[in-house]
Amino acid sequence: MRMILSALICAAMLGPSVACDRHHMNGPHFNLSFPFWHHGSHLVWTRDGKRFDMRFQGTQTFTDDDHDLISLSDGGSLRITVYEGWHGTTFEAKGRANGIIERTFQGKAGDSAEAKAWLASVLPEFIRQRGVDAEARALRVLAKQGFDGPQGLLAEIARINSDEVQRRYYESWFDGGKPEPSMVVRALDQAGRGIESDYELASLLIHLAEKKPPQDSIQVACAETARHIDSDYELRRTLKALLGMGKPSADLARAIAISAEGIDSDHERGGLVQDLAKATDSKSFPMERVLGLVGGIDSDYERHHALRSILARGPLDTDSLALVIQCAGKMDSDFEKASCLLDVLEHQKVVGVAKESFTHATEKIDSEYERNRVFTALAKRG
Predict the structure, then answer these.
(1) Is 153 within 8 Å of 138 (Cβ atoms)?
(2) Which sign does the torsion angle of CA 306, 311, 316, 322 carry?
(3) Which residues contact 258 (CB under 8 A, 6 or more apart)?
């Protein structure tokens, strides 16, 4: 249904002469938050009641203020049409071997002040949406805005339809703009709401994680922003990268565990539990949250491996160990259940309430063989 709706939107915007390519509709350049369409060297979008239709070939260079075209590669071209209702104004430029740019206007006198003003108002939109020199332009926008630079840049990014171009602007700002931690947190909140592509949002968060920001507020904000990622694979690889920023604080570990609740895949969820178990110490490990994650794993194999990573971390307090054992006892597979209980005996001291939970879980094993091998191992432990 979503694909059919997207095709109808695309057809309505482009008319009967342009077909929507399914690959590009699903790709990183097709933003389902209507209205934006990008197919190779053709961009179409609407804003403020106007429809922009732009086609380009070759390499273009623009003035720093984005108001004029100063060079166009030999054989290159740029055609911009802006429709207001049924009326359209078109600017077309063609590059020649001698470096001359042939310019034509349809709808306005080519050399008039009105035509130049129209072009100066339209080119920034093309440059913005195409991502022309995005990294350098992001820093120019930041500098041009002066004291209000960060707010101005956020407003500029909010006008960009392409998820990829948004990511490039954010990365340029984070790398070269020296934003205050509070502005990074604000930018991440906007990115989470504005970037729909799971891949692009994951790439942005991983890029920032690789910079290893020391501020806990930024690290936690990264984990919270990751909750906007729907793909289990992208979410898990993002959260794993965040765990690689250094020894996680308790707040970061908890935020990552909460974000991991969005992972449906047993394999990816179990893998994230193992990532958390390896990366955190006893003070930061969010036991209750992690056991909640394990409880959502349907595969007994994946659940067993997730619990084993928790057991192998070191001695657990009696209450926590009892919870781990109870989680193991809910597995259907007698083999996986027995194997997990043997892991308990290998890594932990089973006493008190934990021993009661252990005995109860063992008695629930239907297979006499599996049940006896657990009780035998328990007897040897004394």
Answers:
(1) yes
(2) positive
(3) 223, 227, 289
Give the tokens for residue 337.
């259940």
140 and 271 assigned to the same domain: yes
Contacts of 8 (CB under 8 A, 6+ apart): none
Q: Vertex 265, ends 262 and 266: CA angle to 5°? A: 115
65 SS3 class: coil
Q: How many of the other CB atoms lie within 10 Å of CB of 218? A: 22
| DSSP label at residue 351 | -
pLDDT band at 110 (very low <50, low <70, confident <90, very high): low
CA distance 380 to 231: 46
Q: Please name the amino acid found at residue 36.
A: F
Residue 115: Cβ within 10 Å count: 17
Supply the pTM of this predicted model: 0.82
In this structure, how many other beta carbons lie within 10 angstroms of the beta carbon of residue 63? 11
- What would the two tokens of residue 367 be? 């297979």
CATH code, domain carrying 230: 1.25.40
Helix (H) or strand (E) holding 84: strand 77-84
d(CA 133, CA 317): 56
pLDDT digits (tens, 9 = 90+) for 301-337: 999 999 999 999 999 999 999 999 999 999 999 999 9
Confidence at residue 146, expressed as pLDDT on a 0 to 100 scale: 63
How many domains, in total, are found in the chain? 4
Domain that holds residue 248: 133-284
Residue 17 is predicted with a pLDDT of 33
CA distance 215 to 312: 30
Quick one: 138 and 266 in the same domain?
A: yes
Three-class SS state of 54: strand
Give the model's pLDDT for residue 39. 54
pLDDT category at 15 given cuts 50, 70, 90 is: very low
Distance CA 115, CA 93 (A): 14
Q: What is the mean pLDDT of the chain?
A: 87
